[in-house]
Amino acid sequence: MNRGCIAIGEIKCDGCQRLIEHGQRYLLMEGDGGEKFRFCVDCCLSKGHAAYVKEKGEQVLTFFPTRVNSQAEQQGSNREGKIG
Ligand SMILES: [Zn+2]
Questions:
Q1: Where are the domains of the chain?
Q2: 32 alpha carbon to ligand 1 midpoint, in Å?
Q3: Cα(36) to centroid of ligand 1, in Å?
Q4: What is the pLDDT of residues 2-28, one digit of tens each?
């Protein structure tokens, strides 16, 4: 389950290890074992978990709530799992 969140306090990005400052947006991802990963906007953009969408002339950052899941995944033979 992926969720777009807003940082409260300082959080470290699990992708690039950079600090996500208070008030900045980040993506919270949950692994199969319930472990949580946090990714800054830059990581999300580069991994395709988020994109800037134009709305009413303004660029708005949108996190993709969940990527293609279970059914398609189960058909593919091997699961590559973790990020990084
Ligand atoms: Zn990052």
A1: 2-69
A2: 21
A3: 14
A4: 889 999 999 999 999 999 999 999 999
How far, in Å, is the centroid of ligand 1 from the Cα of 19? 8
Least confident range of 22-26, 33-37, 63-67, 73-77: 73-77
Q: Ligand 1 centre and the CA of 67: distance in Å? A: 19
Question: CB–CB of 6/23 below 8 Å?
Answer: yes
Token representation of residue 58: 């303004």
* pTM to 2 decimal places: 0.70
Whole-number Å distance, alpha carbon 13 to ligand 1 midpoint, is: 5
CATH 1.25.40 fits 2-69, yes or no: no
Secondary structure element (H or E) that encloses residue 20, with its range: strand 19-20
What does the alpha-carbon distance between residue 50 and residue 43 come to, in Å, rounded to a whole number?
9
